[in-house]
């Protein structure tokens, strides 16, 4: 009787341990990717490593080739720890993000400050060519060139979507702060 009870308790304990280990493994495999401004590969590598399309940035200044001129190859949400202290710096020569023509990808930016970006002719420090951009609780300072945000369409019925909520654009000497390119082909919403 005691041996049977001991076997039953052992089996129950092993089953519970297996369930706990499986649960922890599953939770960790769907969690967001977290990086700091000293993480090897920067934001670009964080995007590559992000299986769920969510990237958390710790406070710090993110600049240089691994943190700017990023062309998306999937839907991404990038969340800063705080908009005052999580800063992406284009250093006066780089743009920030690009949604390539015809991909339909989405980019959501939350709690970030984007400074010193530069965009060449017919481009934006953030360019949307047929996808969706959502910007929430962000600050754009001292970005120059053609436009801070270029929201354009590709052709035909494909549209670009832009939503900006609770964000500030300060001291941006760009020709256009927000440029919506395309006749009746872009949708924008500013809240």
Q: Brief description of this entry?
A:
The protein is α/β, with parallel strands linked by helices. The chain has two helices and 19 strands. Helix content is 19%, strand content 39%.
Task: Describe the model.
The protein has 2 domains: 1-30; 34-190. It is 19% helix and 39% strand. The radius of gyration is 22 Å and the shape is globular. The longest helix has 28 residues, at 2-29. Mean pLDDT is 84; it is low at 24-30 and 183-188. The chain is of the alpha/beta class and 191 residues long. The chain contains 2 helices and 19 strands. It has helices at 2-29, 42-49, and strands at 33-35, 54-57, 60-63, 70-71, 76-80, 86-89, 97-99, 106-110, 113-115, 118-119, 126-129, 132-136, 139-141, 144-145, 147-152, 160-165, 168-170, 176-181, 186-190. Strand 1 (33-35), helix 2 (42-49) and strand 2 form a beta-alpha-beta unit.
């Amino acid at each position: 009787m005691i041996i049977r009870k001991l076997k039953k308790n052992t089996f129950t304990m092993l089953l519970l341990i297996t369930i706990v280990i499986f649960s922890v493994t599953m939770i960790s495999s769907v969690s967001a990717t977290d990086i700091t401004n000293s993480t090897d590969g920067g934001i670009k590598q964080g995007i590559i490593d992000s299986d769920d399309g969510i990237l958390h940035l710790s406070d710090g200044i993110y600049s240089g080739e691994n943190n700017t001129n990023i062309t998306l190859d999937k839907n991404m949400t990038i969340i800063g720890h705080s908009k005052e202290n999580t800063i992406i710096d284009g250093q006066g020569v780089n743009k920030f993000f690009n949604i390539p023509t015809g991909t339909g990808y989405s980019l959501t930016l939350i709690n970030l400050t984007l400074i010193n970006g530069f965009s060449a002719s017919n481009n934006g420090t953030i360019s949307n060519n047929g996808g969706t951009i959502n910007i929430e609780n962000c600050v754009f300072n001292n970005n120059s060139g053609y436009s801070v945000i270029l929201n354009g369409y590709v052709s035909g019925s494909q549209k670009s979507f832009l939503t900006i909520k609770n964000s500030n654009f300060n001291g941006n000497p760009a020709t256009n702060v927000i440029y919506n390119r395309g006749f009746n082909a872009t949708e924008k919403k500013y809240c």
